[in-house]
Recover the amino acids of this structure.
């Protein structure tokens, strides 16, 4: 897959496009629109063999899961308190 650049502006633009289509859309419905757009665009590739379309759909779904899992992991790491060490130290020798 190609390198892509995600930004808060991109997310806002996409949400606003869906809200223009359906003003009462919540986050779940916005995600359904995104999935439907992906499926429609992929299904519209008439020059692509069905097996290739299916393989690309599998790749795109796996990529979406990877992005979601990566974000979840980063948020969990950011919310953890920093590791703390404590104990007693005695100089060697005596």
């Amino acid at each position: 897959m190609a390198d892509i650049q995600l930004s808060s502006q991109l997310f806002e633009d996409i949400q606003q496009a869906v809200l223009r289509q359906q003003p009462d859309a919540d986050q779940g419905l916005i995600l359904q629109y995104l999935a439907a757009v992906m499926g429609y665009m992929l299904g519209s590739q008439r020059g692509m063999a069905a097996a290739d379309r299916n393989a690309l759909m599998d790749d795109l779904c796996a990529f979406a899961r990877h992005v979601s899992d990566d974000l979840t992991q980063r948020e969990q790491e950011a919310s953890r308190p920093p590791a703390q060490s404590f104990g007693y130290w005695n100089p060697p020798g005596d």
